[in-house]
Amino acid sequence: MKRDLDALMEVRGLDAFVVSGRTYGNPSLVYLLNGAAVTQGIVVKKRGEVPVFIHSPIERDEAAASGLPLVNMARYRFTEILRETGDRLKATVELYRRIFADLDVRGEVGFYGMADQGQAYLFLSALAEALPEIRVRGEYDEALLDVARATKDADEVARIREVARLTCEVVEETIAFLRRHRVKDETLVTDDGAPLTVGQVKDYVYQLMARRRLESPEGFIFAIGRDAGVPHSQGCPDDPIRLGQTIVYDIFPRRAGGYYFDLTRTFCLGYAPPEVERVYRDVAGCLDAVVAEARVGVEARRLQQVACAFFAERGYPTIAENPETEVGFNHLIGHGLGLAIHEEPVFTDVPSNTRTLQPGHVFTVEPGIYDPDRGYGVRLEDVVWIDEDGQVHNLTPLPKELVVEI
Fold first, then answer.
1. What percent of the chain has pLDDT over 70?
2. 3-state secondary structure of 274
3. Whole-model pTM?
4. What does 175-244 look like in DSSP terms, one character per residue?
5. Strand, helix or coil at 287?
């Protein structure tokens, strides 16, 4: 949580940190700016002090919505520096020299945000050489802001709940849309008698999201039959919607610049084959078993172990026994959720993953069983939150139903 930033900085020995870049695709900057609708900027935080936002002069009103102390970037006259140096790298180093002098930043300084990797390397190397009073620090695993963002406060969870409500509405209206179609030769058809396709359903889903001001920057999954058996297949647009085939509907929208939700339901229209019924029961049982294991202090990797053991006991291949398996359970049990679709905590079952579940964690639980050669895939996904008192809450107010009557 944001309240933990100073403590995390102290543990890491940081005197200050900088987050910079454009806001789009830069969740750590969005996090510190409290969702302010700006396109870019630089946030500087010194340990024990409130972060300062250095913003574009044309976004001064939007910058004010961050609630942070503001500094207008025009104060540092970057264009004049660039004109004098004739070199953007040298000019950028000089810009930061002026910012750090103005804010009295010195010592161990961490750098975060979004930038081209080569540009970042050249800039930080040049900065370290030019400013001996600054010792550039970077982090690779469990970076400071990733850890802070992993635990959500009540306001963040309220925003996630709102996206959850809207996401569930979209799923319910999608199913209602499917039910409005006639059936001909085991296939849903449109008014002109042509087969309803995955592409047409997805077009309708995008309309549903747009009406609710939901963004879907990474698309979503609506895959039927064999494609449902490939976990991240988004579905073939030309595939017809047939009865009795598994449909994996995995949707992960967000509010503009804000928090994501993630939800998967698998269903068959009209009826389900007996094999699919059995697999569905096992996947639902695994979800319940994993959620039952989730509590404060449990190692995150334990949830992956529980899922693999559950499925192995029922005869399914898992990645615990064969990391290359393309059938059975072949992915992680879940992921942290917030301003990024995938964030801390991480559930990889390796000894180096010593993360434990903590109050404030919000994460998905999404077991699945897949067999594309047999023409099916089944995945169910709920979002779980552990509150400040250690109570576990399911944030997914949508029932699970394998067969959708048509």
1. 100
2. helix
3. 0.93
4. HHHHHTSEEETTEEE-TTSPBPBHHHHHHHHHHHHHHTTEE-TT--EEEEGGGGGSTT----TT-B-BTT
5. helix
